[in-house]
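Q: May I have one protein plus its fold?
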Amino acid sequence: MRFVDQLRSVRHTFDANRGRTALTLIGIMIGAGSIVLLASLLSGGQEALLNADQGAADTDIVQVDADEAPAKQARKTRRELGRNDSELLDDSPVLPGAHIATEKTRWTKAQFHKQKKRVSLVGAAPVALELYRLGVDKGRFITPDDLREGRRVCVIGTNVWTQLMGPEAQLGDAITVDNVQWIVVGVLKNKPPLGGGGDGPWMWNNKVLVPQTTFDAVFDNAHTVDQIFVRIGEGDGDMPLQMRLGLARKAIESTLLRTHYGVNNFKVDRWGEESKQEEMIMQVIKILLLGTGLLSLFVGGINIMNIMLVTVTERTREIGVRRAIGANPTSIMMQFLLESAFIALTGGIIGVLGGLAISFGVAKLLTAMLGAWKLHVEAWSIALGLGLSVSTGVIFGLFPAWRAAKLDPVEALRYE
């Protein structure tokens, strides 16, 4: 029997049992569709978490935090983490092309006329705009001239602009923070945390950014910092990112240990450790959710096997006729395998299309509820959904097909 004839036989079977076929498709549709949907949501969720992060969270950034010295080094002479450390790292020959930034923060109150608001006052530099993925909604950001001339200017979060200064405010107005007046030259774009929860001063919407040179001159003559961020350079294009990060961490730690007189009063890449934990958690969630889709496919496969066994029983006489006119067991087996595979493939295609449609709708809904949520269509999830659907059809169709091929022709012809 030719392959084309077998396909026609499959189509005839479908036309004759549309209701049964539709019921059989449901499990496969749910399995394939859930794989596409969950892969899309997980990818979108990871990007949303990254975009909503209130810290510097790029994969090529090493973070250095000020820390307490170990007990055995508590009485040793040491230096605190400071601006000069970033300058030393910037000049280091083992960190070519690296971008270095420091951060110093004070939680305090800002005042505009009679209004007051809890804010974070941050000493920042122009590199902070890229480092933290910030955008400027009004005015401008801190410039090198602001740093060089020690200007008392500030860039404020959107909540500070709307809740403290109000609708009558204009760029060029002054706010008072820690008894110091700062001229507002810019307003940041809205950057809420994922879900919009909380309204603390740690949020970018509630921060006041001032030139770090002015911050040090007014509040911290010691020029200490809370964090140093190092965005590693491109380096050797053939070297993997993780290897370059490892070399950068070692170089940063050894350089800081020399300047801190061997006292380890800093912590290198605390964020990197947390990022690995978050990545592991996301991977576990992905495995568990995709396992749900595989379970649905397994249930769908059992349905296919049951339906195909019923089909073999109903078509016993047809099988006997075909064997009598010359059909061999292989062609009989191939016909039933094609039917089960085609049922599974059809269910997989419908499920994938349904998963894509639901992903689109969910992305729109989450964008309205939580902020920017991009639709991600993972090609691997489509291929996996379709591939597993066909594999399920073939695997669970093997036994019914083998049973049909092994029927005795004489007994099959006598079946009523």
Observations:
- The mean pLDDT is 79.
- The first strand starts at residue 61 and ends at 66.
- DSSP finds 13 helices and ten strands in the chain.
- The two ends are 25 Å apart (CA to CA).
